[in-house]
Each structure stands twice: as structure tokens, then as C-alpha cells.
Design brief:
Two copies of one chain form a homodimer. With 232 residues, chain A is mostly helical. Chain A contains nine helices and no strands. The longest helix of chain A has 31 residues, at 55-85. Chains A and B meet through helix 1, helix 7, helix 8 and helix 9 of A and helix 1, helix 7, helix 8 and helix 9 of B. Chain A binds a DNA duplex (30 and 30 nucleotides) through helix 3.
DNA sequence: GTACAATTAAAACGAACGTTTGAATCAGTT
DNA sequence: AACTGATTCAAACGTTCGTTTTAATTGTAC
């Protein structure tokens, strides 16, 4: 039979993935060596190349196993929203909650590595490594299409270009909120309350405020009344 | 005399700095080797260690030369705002514009490497490398103190914790807007209008919308009227 | 033009990297 | 008990890394 995956120790693969995930967050991809990963995982150095083929393939699998589930949840939530709404248009806030809420819920999970992974993911959006960027873009393509489409329908009067930009801004705010909280020491010691559970409402309020902000008038109009309102 | 800096070719230093800046954005710190830097700069391999001491010291100097000027501008603009206002409180929007506007202006400068540097800076906020984080935190400490203080006085009714969080969110949105626009291929091909000059009003509108959003009520209050307004 | 200090140049250093190899070990089948 | 294929293991592979060393070269003051 062709079941080449697991024989007697299927845990070796996941031990490697867990160790890699943690170390990637801590040191980045380049600065994390195979020897660091395998020694932390308690497996032989050659195990990574045996099970995954290469370091790049390992990086890819670290993202794939978590991202597949996250994006599945996102799409399921959007499906449910659209089913409930019937033919009525969706509220932008619900769409945003479906996309960013699921991510924040994963980021709040400190038990099963969700928090670790979301820190890694947030940082990776700006990763210079070309192959990682390429892979992320492919994983996200479908989900982005669906959610952007939903937002376009939800805000028919707002130029799509603007919706795109604001989605971009929202992703940035969320990524930094997660990746930067303990990573960057800029605000170190300043946060009395870094509870991930409270991050959710805080961030969501900020995101929706930004999404609903009046559209900028590019100094095109001579400032008659400072732009119109963007959304509900 | 004790002028050990420059003798007959002071350009070697800056050639190295420029090459390093560009390559760091393109490949990251770890993946950029000394040999890549020196060959792109057209100088000898040993020149970096001679002029800067080490690769880490070079990284530090790449940031220092630009960041010193940026933060000087930021503080000067805040000084001017406070001088104009006299004893009257500053509008939050003006404070935000002073901090993020200067950064965006630098990011819009594609002639003298400002755009390149801002992409690098944005990415570096989440850099795992400990010494880079440490250095950034030190460079920013004074500026953050001043601007956060100004915001606290400008929004006396908003809990400082919330202002801190929103400043954090705003930095994230800006960093991604700059670092992610051409770096990440997530939205590749989707932007018809990626003009850096138009990014400014777009982002500023988003940031102020987020800053002014109603405060989240952490399900603590039983949702009497859905939180109060945050700012002017 | 000779002495001097700053800079550049070419070559080599040991260390660490990702990967490969070939033998040992294991579980299950016959 | 012998065989088989999957997995683990220790060791080594060639390459690249940041840095150091030592010599050649440069511009300037005496």
C-alpha cells in the first residue's frame, strides 16, 4: 500500500513541526538552523530532510498545517453569515469579524501553539524570502477573493480601491497587534493589560473605526465638506 | 588631530551604507552577506569590518543615520504644534499627523532612498533579532515618550492603556502599508493606484478613524449603550 | 623624496550551514 | 527465524559565512 507517511512513530513529524514553529518565531527562518530544530525536537539531524525533504519544505509545512484550518474556519463563517442573511446585504462589521475574529481567536489560544503561530504568521507577511511570500500568497488567494468580494457587495458606494487599501491597513494593524506585542520591545513594560482575550474587542473596535472613517479627499475637491462617509 | 573618520574617500562608508540598506530590504539581514554588500558597493570585502567593525555595527549604522533625522523632524513638528497651541490642548489628529505624516513623507521619497529605508524600518519592528530590537527600542524611547504624553494630555478622558493600544495599532497599519505594498504579493496586481503620494491621505484617514472609534466594552458592562466615544 | 598614517587589497581562517551517505535498528509479514 | 521496507543514526560532504591577517597603496606633511 502507499501509506508512506507514518509507520511506528508518526510523532516525529509533528515534534519537528512544533519545534520549528517555536524557533522560527524566536529567531526567524534564516537564523534557525536544522541543528537547533532537531535538537529541540529530540530527533536526529537527518530527520527533517527525511520527512520533509528540505528546510524550505519544512517551513512550508509549518504554515500549511495551521493556515489550512484557519482559512477553512474563515470561509465557513462567511458561508454561515451569507446563509443567514439570505438575499440581504451583509454588514461590513460582520465580514470583518469573520475574517479577523477567527485569526484573533487563534492568537488567543496559548495552549496549542495558536498564539505562537499567529505571531509567526504576522511577521511573515513582510518576509523578504521570496519563496515564503509566494507560498503565502497562494494560500491566501482564495480567501481574499471571497472576503473582498463580500466587502465590495456590502459597500457598493465605496470605491473598490479604497476597500482594498483599508483591508490592507486592517491586516497590518492586526499583524502588529499580535506579532509586535511581545516581540517588539518598543512598548515594553508599558502595557499593564496584555491579555490576549481583551485584544480582540480592542482591535475590532479600532479596525471598524478605520474601515468606517470618512474617505480621504486627495486634495482633488477643494474641501467642500471633507469627504463623505465610507460605510455603515 | 583626532579626525579618524574621513581622509580621502569618505564615500566608501556611504556606498556601503546605501548598498546594505537596499540589500537588507530585498533579502533581510541574515540572508544578506558581507560579500553581497561589498560587491554591490564596489568596495573590498574587508572594508565593512574596517569602517564599521562588524556586520551588526553596520546594521545599527544603517538605521541610525536615517532614524536620527526622522525622529528629529518628528520632535520639531511636535514642538511647533505645542508652541502654536500655547496653553490650549492639541488636537489628537495633529499629533498623529506629526508622528505618522513625517514617516509617510519619508516613505514617499523615492529619490534619496527614503522609501527603501521606510520599508526596511517597517519590517524591522517585528524583527526577531534581539540586538536589532533592542537598538530600535532605544532609538524610539524618547520620541514615544513625547508623543504618548501629548496624546494623553490631548485625550484626558480616554484610559492611557487604550491610547497605548491604539498607537500600537496605528504603527502596525502604517508599517504594513509601507513595507507590505510591494513586498507582499498578497494584494499583488490588485492595486491600480499604488502612488505613495496618495497613500498619505488614505492612511491618515484610516488611522484617525481607528483612533476615534468608540471604546470597546469588554463585556464587562452589560452593554448599556455600547461604550463611549474615544476622541474628538 | 622620504616618512607617516589612513585606507585598500588579496588571501586565508575556523566555524557553522543544509544536505547526503551508508549502516544500524525497528515493526510487521511470511 | 528470516525477510522486507520504513525509519533512525552517526558521520561526513562541500559550501558559505563573518572575520582576521598581512601586504600593497594612497594622499599628505616634513
Amino acid at each position: 500500500m502507499n501509506a508512506p507517511a507514518a509507520r511506528h512513530t508518526p510523532e516525529t513529524r509533528s515534534r519537528i513541526l512544533d519545534a520549528a514553529e517555536t524557533l522560527f518565531v524566536e529567531h526567524g527562518f534564516e537564523a534557525t538552523s536544522m541543528r537547533m530544530i532537531t535538537s529541540q525536537a529530540g530527533v536526529n539531524l537527518a530527520a527533517v530532510n527525511y520527512h520533509f525533504g528540505s528546510k524550505d519544505a519544512l517551513i512550508q509545512e509549518v504554515f500549511r498545517r495551521r493556515l489550512a484550518e484557519l482559512n477553512r474556519q474563515r470561509l465557513a463563517m462567511l458561508d454561515q453569515l451569507e446563509a443567514e442573511a439570505g438575499s440581504a446585504p451583509l454588514k461590513p462589521s460582520r465580514i470583518v469579524e469573520a475574517f479577523f475574529g477567527t485569526a484573533l481567536a487563534l492568537a488567543a489560544d496559548t495552549e496549542h501553539g495558536g498564539h505562537t503561530f499567529m505571531r509567526l504568521l504576522g511577521r511573515t507577511y513582510t518576509e523578504p524570502n521570496a519563496f515564503v511570500r509566494q507560498f503565502l500568497a497562494e494560500e491566501y488567494a482564495g480567501v481574499l477573493e471571497r472576503f473582498l468580494g463580500a466587502l465590495y457587495r456590502s459597500l457598493p458606494d465605496v470605491p473598490r480601491e479604497e476597500i482594498l487599501w483599508r483591508f490592507h491597513f486592517m491586516m497590518g494593524a492586526m499583524s502588529y497587534a499580535i506579532a509586535g506585542t511581545d516581540a517588539l520591545q518598543l512598548f515594553a513594560g508599558k502595557f499593564d493589560d496584555a491579555d490576549p482575550a481583551r485584544l480582540m474587542p480592542r482591535l475590532m473596535s479600532f479596525l471598524l473605526g478605520g474601515l468606517r472613517a470618512p474617505l480621504a479627499d486627495f486634495a482633488a475637491k477643494p474641501a467642500t465638506r471633507r469627504g463623505g462617509r465610507a460605510a455603515a
